[in-house]
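call fold target=Periplasmic protein-like protein
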Amino acid sequence: MSDSAPSEADAAPRKPVVGRVLMGVLIFQLGLAVLLFWGDLGEGLRLPAFGPKAPELTEPIRPGDQTRRFRPDRAPNSGQPMPDTALPDRLILTPVSGGRAALLEGTIDAGDAERIVKQLADLEPAPEQVYLNSPGGSVQDALELGRYLRREGLNTALREGDICYSACPYLLVGGASRDVPDSGSVGVHQHYFGQSTILPAFVAVEDIQRGQGAVMRYLDEMGIDPLVMQHALVTPPDEIYVLLPDELRRYGFIPEE
């Protein structure tokens, strides 16, 4: 007997199955979009936490215990008291050491790269070294300014007790040579790359992937081991992973002893 077309009774059960699969995919996409949107809402909202909170940044770090809660407006050196005042809300350039060096201090705001490049170019005498003290900020501006520092052959460093968190390490690695004292603090975490997550989820994810790709290319250009991103990618934006001196050497931030 030849095969016959499926009867209506055979085909009917498949429709609910297909419908449930499509509904599941739709719910997943909507859920991802909601999480992305929620994470980009006003200050104070955070994605749900599923584990114990990281200690405050004022708590000393030790190997294997390097993740701390992070507030860019109040970002102390790890293990030090919370500062009474915040760093400037944009990068401020100040000549120091009789003009032989410059201090870049404050949050890296959008547009700071172009502004600081012009200020550095106008300095007389031209500085040989740039000191950093920043809680981070705009990744795009950090990459642009870091490339300028490398092209100009400027060295980068932290002073005793200063910080370089979030996007600031991209300025640090732009230096032709780099120095971080034992009392300096360098930390990494996840970044926001899109302007708004009021977008389809796939668009937001695409922005993140494109941004991470740009960071990886930049680190490779600067001779930094991109494996440092393993710490950044698992550390939420409201926390910071503080790199130990041996990690700074291992990933190429500072020379081996």
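return ok
Confidence is low (pLDDT under 50) at residues 40-49, 194-204. The two ends are 83 Å apart (CA to CA).
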